[in-house]
Structures are given as C-alpha cells and as structure tokens.
C-alpha cells in the first residue's frame, strides 16, 4: 500500500467511525459534532483525490454553515447538555437490519465490479479552482443557473415559513 | 490508489445514513442522516471524476451542486422543524401523527391537545 | 470558452513553484516565528488598545509596569493563568475544555497563507525562500474555511457552559459571524476577478501597480464592515453585550480558558487586518512615495510595510471601540442582510460585467464606471425609500398585548401601554385595562387550540 492509500484508509476509518457515532450517540449536540468530524475527514479524502476546490468548499459550506445551522436548530429546540433517553424509534432493529443489508449489497457489488481498478493520481488531474471553475461556467452553466433559481426559491420558502409562524401566533 | 477505497467508504457512509434516517426520533438527527447519505454520494462522484479523468469535471461540478442543494434543503428543513417545535413543543417524529388515518393516531392527537391546552391554561 | 481563454492570456497563471521547496527546519522556523509574532502582537495590541482608548477618554491608561506600561498585558496574562479554573456543574465537561482550543487554533493557522514579504535569502545560508509559510491556488478560500471552523469554538463554549447567558451569547455570536462571512466572501469576489487568482501571493503581485483598495472601494468598505462584525468587536460586539448578556459566550469561563478566548479575539483581529492588507492594500508592497525607491520592496524591509499596514487596521479597530456605541442586534442583522449583502452582490455583478467587457473589447472605462455609479445610486435611493415604508408599518400593528407569549413584555416602538390608553381615554379605570387583557387572552387560546 502506498502512503496515499494508507492515509485514505485512515481518513475513511475516521469518517465511518464518526458517522456511526452520529447515528448512535444519545447526546444530540455531540451527534452534530461527530458529523463535523465525518465531513472534515471527507474533505481530507477529496484532497487526496486531487479535488482541492471541492475539499475547501466542503469545509466552508458544510462544516462552516450547514452543521452550524444544525447546531442552531438543536439549541433552539432546547437540546439538553446531558444525554437524552429515547432518541431512537421502536423500529431500530428493522432499521439496523436494513442498513446492514444495504451495506452488504453495496459493498459486495462494488467489490465484484471494481476489484482491481486503480485510480491514477498524478499531477495532470488537479481539481483546482481554475479547472473546476472553467467546467462550471462553460459546460455546466445552465444547471448552475437553474441551481441559483432553486436557491432563491429555498430562500423565499424559508422566509415565508418563519414569517407565517409569527403571524399565526398572534 | 484502488478505486475500491473511496467506494467502500461511501457505501458504508450511505448505509449508516440509512440507519440514521430510519432509527432516529429527533427530526434534526434525521436530517443529519440525510446529510450523511448525500456526502456518501459526493465521495462517489469525486472518486469517479478522478478515476475517469473527466474533461468537463462532471463529478466535481455535481458535487458542488449537491452541496448547494443540501444547504437549500437543510435551510427549508430546519425552518419546518422549528415551526413544528413552536406548534408542538417537540420535534419527535414518532409523535407527529396529524396526517395519519388510524384511531390510535387520533387518540394520540387528542391526548397531545389535552396536555397542551392544560399547559396553556395554567400559564394564564 | 472564449472568455476563459481571453482571461488566460491576460491574467497570469498561478505560479506557486517557489513554495514547498524549503528544508524542514525552515518550515519549523517560519511556523514558530508566525506563532511568536502573533502572541507578541496580541500582548502589544492589548496594551495599545488600553492606552489609546484611555487617551480618547482623557485618561492615562496602564503606565506602571515596564516602559510606558508595556509589560502590563504580560502581568495580566500571568494573573489570569494563576486564577482558579472553574468548571460549572451543568457544563458538558469535554466540550467546555475543547471549545477555547477550537476557537484559538483556527485563528493561528489562517496565518499560514499570509505573505509577509517577497522572496528573501535566509541569513547565514544561501537558501532563498518567500516570507510566507505556504501558499495554495485557493488560499483565500482556505482562510474563509478556517475562519468558519473558529465559529464552533464560540457556539460550543456557549452551549457547553450550561448557562442561559452563555447560550444566548454563543447563538448571537455565531449567527453574526455566519451572516457577516457571506458579505466578507462577496467582498473578496471582486478582488479575485481583478487578480485572476485566489492565492495570496498572486493577489499581492497583482497589486504592484495599483492597490485594489483604491479601485475596488465598495468591496473594501464592505470588507471593513464585515471584518468588524466577524471579529465580534465594537460597535458590533453584541455577543459580549455586558448589559444584556454579562460576558456572552465566555460568561462561565475563567483562568487560562478565558485567556485563550481573549487570545483568539486579538489574533483574529490581526488576521482580518493582515488579510485586508493583503487583499486591498497591496500586502507587503511599500506605500506610494516609498515605492519610487527600488530598494523598498526588497529584502526584509517589506516586513515593516506589512506590519505597519496591519497595525493601521488594529488602530482602526481600537478607534471604533473608543468612539462608537454598540448597535442593537436587529439593526445589526438588518445592516448585514439588507444592506451589505445586496450591495456586495450588485457590486460583484457590476465588476464582473466591467471586467468581461474590458477583457473582450475594451470599451471606454469612463462610461462603464458612470453607469455603475448611477446603478448604485438608484439602488441606494430605492433601498432608502423601502426603509421608510417598513418603518411606518408598526402603526398598523394590532393592539399591544402586555402578556404576549405568557410573559409581561414592554411595548414596541409605536405601541402604547394599555393602561395609558385607558387613562387617556378618560372613562377607563384600571378595570378597563383588565378588560382589554381578558379580551385578548381567549382569542389567543382559541388560536392555540385550533
């Protein structure tokens, strides 16, 4: 195994391990923090896969904004500092069984399909801001614009939702 | 590097996300499960982008799109969750049964209302 | 495609080949030096702030320990370290300890990509190295990303303390930092467009002829407002508003952990000041009359210009604190979301248009600038008109409910206390006030039942 492979395996382990903690921990705020660890490890994976721009956007948007929003929601819904009882539903065994099934099916099919395939990681594939930006604003410009409309719609939607609560409360 | 490394990590993350969505009761934690699944997909996209040496970088661009969509989804989702918290004083998905059709659900709603109006009366 | 190629010809390609060639000990020396500079600057800035604010208030300030009282902050630091370290009972112990560390580390590591000077020769050797720890093609994005990690320290400090004041302060602070980070990022876009790069050393190199702070004035002003908001400094220091929140997110912190928050705040000030210097004031380039002399931009001298410009921003921070009262939180958020971000967006669009046109054909610049100015003025006029319309709204609001939400609340501006209306209505007694209350209550209860 090369150094990159070892590093990737470690980061992957961290990502999967902390993801497990996200879905199992009884402390709500800790779940959000383990999610940060998962997302950070994934950003490291992107760096190793030569996607530099995506990696920093991941840190900036996911770690910097999305999880902070989640933390806000947890705090505004009064998450206690202590561990909380009953954070899982009654169908936990079913969920666990299904998840294991999904994992088994995916992993076995992936192993069957891509057993000896290697990624060639040399300098010619660098997902720098320049290459990604050029792709984004030439080949993908229409989806990009559609996405901006979607974001606008989400913005308006969120504002409408939070305003109507205030009006209804009176 | 073996392509299998990122693919297996992503598959495991996805199944963990599935478990989180199905097993968690707190609405915010369910959203976290969704985020895990989205990130699993992102890792796949980036891995294949690098593997295929995509000239138009469809994998990385799509990853950026997914990140933006996830942010939008979460903004709306959390607005809804906070509304639910204001009207119900909890965000326990199991107890949100207004739209179900069974008798048990009706009883649960009636019970919730009793508790809630009782609290509201006591405040005054 | 055409445009991208055209830009590629005119803009320099990122050339970061000078970075990453240093021997390991040079890395170590640079890292340690940055750390030492930041810590010493913090000690100096605390002293400078106290002295300058004292002068502004016709006091003397600390002048006992050391020459001019320079050792005062060192003494304060030692005092803080020797104090009892209190951990509240209701706190989440692990996070309570980690939080100050999380808020301090990003403040330091953001400095890794700040250029202090040009390529120099290390004394006693013949190694040539840039006065910068490292650089990358997306360096400014890295700074933004690292700064956003620093928010966690504050959110977690607020939450893990298990205290209401701290929680509110933490929430306020993080909401503030997230909002102003958007404006900050938008202010950078114009710089990227003009420099054609996100790497800090390239941006400094692109300002050899003209500083971006002079041609991109709106971006610069937006950044200045955003950087004060981002660092939680007066007049935007709402998370630490003593009158409402005691100490804000660090209410429950004491001893060294509190000192770490203090350190993070002052290092952050230096970081945003250094970033402003790098992006808008030409980084380590000598200011105008000095830049006529060729030697001004060579060797170790630029270090002086860089630190001087950064200290200018520090003085600006102190000046603001000495002169301006604290803003109200809703006004502050309004400023961020309704003024700074729209203006920044509009300016970004204008700059992108100008840049595209000049790169493509090269229309006379005066027309473009004139058109952009008119557009900005129209926008500002419209936004002020809109402001008035919203201010008139409260008059239409329903009658004041003294127990809205079950708690006694003071009236909003424009509302009148029910007791006063009954008194001025001459027929009413205190029972009248009671009537309006009773009238209000069943309605709201019905609402909740429905």
Output mean pLDDT of chain A.
82
- The global form of chain A is globular
Structural class of chain A: mainly alpha
Shape descriptor of chain B reads: elongated
Q: Based on DSSP secondary structure assignment, what is the total number of beta strands of chain A?
A: 0
Kindly report the greatest chain-chain contact and the residue count on each side: A-B, 91 and 70 residues
Give the name of the CATH architecture of chain A. Answer: Up-down Bundle
CATH homologous superfamily of chain A - what is it?
NADH-ubiquinone/plastoquinone oxidoreductase chain 6, subunit NuoJ
The DSSP helix count of chain A reads 6
**Biggest β-sheet of chain A: count, sense, barrel?**
none
User: Beta-strand level of the residues of chain A, as a percent range?
Assistant: under 5%
CATH architecture descriptor of chain B:
Orthogonal Bundle
Q: What's the story with the biggest beta sheet of chain B?
A: none
- Please report the distance between the alpha carbons of the first and last residues of chain A: 65 Å
| Tally of individual domains of chain B | 1
Outline:
Chain A has 170 residues and is mostly helical. Chain A is 76% helix and 0% strand.
Task: Please specify the SSE layout and strand pairing.
The complex is a heterotrimer of chains A (170), B (124) and C (450).
Chain A: H1 3-24, H2 28-48, H3 52-76, H4 92-113, H5 129-138, H6 141-169
Chain B: H1 4-23, H2 27-52, H3 58-88, H4 103-123
Helix pairs in contact in B: 1-2, 2-3
Chain C: H1 2-10, H2 24-56, H3 72-82, H4 93-109, E1 117-121, E2 128-131, H5 139-160, H6 164-195, H7 200-206, H8 212-215, H9 217-230, H10 242-245, H11 255-280, H12 288-291, H13 302-323, H14 329-360, H15 365-392, H16 418-424, H17 430-449
Antiparallel strand pairs in C: 1-2
Helix pairs in contact in C: 2-11, 2-13, 3-11, 4-5, 4-11, 5-6, 6-7, 6-9, 6-14, 9-11, 9-14, 11-13, 14-15, 16-17
Describe this structure in words.
The complex is a heterotrimer of chains A (170), B (124) and C (450). Chain A is mostly helical. Chain A has helices spanning 3-24, 28-48, 52-76, 92-113, 129-138, 141-169. In chain A, α2 runs antiparallel to α3 (52-76). Mean pLDDT of chain A is 82; it is low at 165-170. With 124 residues, chain B is mainly α. Chain B has a single domain, classed as Orthogonal Bundle (Helix Hairpins). In chain B, 79% of the residues lie in helices and 0% in strands. Chain B contains 4 helices and no strands. In chain B, α2 packs antiparallel against α3. The radius of gyration of chain B is 20 Å and the shape is elongated. The termini of chain B are far apart. Chain C has a domain at 2-288 and 324-329. Chain C is 65% helix and 2% strand. A two-stranded antiparallel sheet of chain C has the order 1-2. In chain C, a hairpin with a 6-residue loop joins β1 and β2. In chain C, α4 runs antiparallel to α5 (139-160). Chain C is globular, with a radius of gyration of 26 Å. In chain C, 36% of the residues are buried. Classes of the chains: A mainly alpha (170), B mainly alpha (124), C mainly alpha (450).
